[in-house]
Write a structure and sequence with these properties.
The protein is mostly helical. Helix content is about 65%, strand content about 0%. It has a two-stranded antiparallel ribbon. The radius of gyration is 27 Å and the shape is globular.
Length: about 325
Amino acid sequence: MSNGKSTAVPVQAKKKPSWFYLKRDRWLYFMIIPVIVYYFIFKYIPMYGVSIAFKNFNMFTGITGSEWVGLDVFGKVFKEPLFWSSVKNTLVLNISILLIEFPMTIILSLMLNEIISLKFKKFAQSILYLPHFVSWVVVAGIVTNLFSANGGTINNMLNAIGIQTIPFLSNEKWWIFTYVAANIWKEIGWGTIIYLAALTGVDENLYEAAYIDGATKLQRLWYITLPSIKPVIITMLILSLSRMMNIGLDAPLLLGNQKVAAVSEVLSTYVYKIGLTKAQYSMATAVGLFQSVINIIMLLLVDRIAKIMGEDGLL
């Protein structure tokens, strides 16, 4: 039975075809074309070269003329003791840097965020960002002058107060310390950019309400600031863990030497030596492909763990 009231049925808007949006936003799509072309030429076409890892590559016959050997190259790589030593050293150095630099970057970002003086804050940020733009060649020279056993500034100061010379660059354990310290000094300031951007999005009303309720600065930091930037922290941690098998060539190559080769030989230097020095291109490509596959697995695994723990994850 009708109760005398009419029920209004919402009229659904007709879905417009795809060409409508293509025509409407044609200039935006046109601006994307150079980026697509760039990635296609310099990122996707070179992927064909990965097939070298499955061939007995001969530079005179080229990729297509080289004999296909399947996984034989990987078997040869995995039998090399130096390869596994390089894997271990890569993980040790990356994990050491992550354990120290990651929390220090967050702490430094929180400290910068608390600076009231805008001029001093900008000055401090400029000083912290500057090392990122300094070439590793220059940084290696600075590190050598500071930590050298013969005439190094640090050892001269230690000798002046009666402390014996410390072999920062010739002892394996001290070399790892020096390498990690140099990397942190160079990159910690640059890493604060993402966190400072995230901190600007924290609602100021939350701080005011907490202040009125009597919360201390430390409590406001722990219960408001950190939870507010937690998604960014998780994302940066996932990205950092997904690069555990990658390490730059410049730093270990320039800071390393024969005395510390047991800890300074990493995957990037290993690829450099077997690929460019010994012209074993198939092995070098296989190692590079191995790094990429492990990094992808790490990315998916860590992202999955983050989602299981209730976080948004990355993918």
